[in-house]
Model the fold of this input.
Amino acid sequence: LSKISASTGIDSRALRGYADAAVALKDQQPACKLGWATLAAIGAIESGHGTHGESSLTADGRSTVAIIGPALNGQGGYAAIRPSAEATTRHGDAQWDRAVGPFQFIGDTWERWQSDGDGDGDADPNDIDDAALAAGRYLCASGADLSTGNGWRAAVFSYNHSDEYVENVLAVANAYAK
Done:
């Protein structure tokens, strides 16, 4: 782990979250074939591996400062999304939903795919282990083989409906995989 951390520049705590999620998914959904590098690329793009702003990851994988995205109020290219009560509890905005955590989950998506990746009894979108496993489950939901170009692209596009985003994730994932 330390060798890969040194060669990729990914903090070893984040890297462990990505690797553990990929191993869990290999057991849970073997046909998916999601690699750690895809999770790491999404984690890099969404939050700098849980270090966006003033945040860093603690030894247990939680962000020291909650990573909360902008209000999804229909402005600035964002959809207008009203939060559920559960989402409001996570980000504090009762009027507009906001993406939360290292993988930037919006409320409804987290509520559907939430996972307890570290087995501590708490599914927390601000925990790299939980968020990485939830993101992996989301990416594997189509049932496609993510080791194929078409399967991988469709899964990443479902995560963020942007061709530019898919290309960015591809470039970062390929750099990590090298």
User: Anything to note?
Assistant: The mean pLDDT is 96. The first helix runs from residue 2 to 8. The chain is about 50% helix and 0% strand.
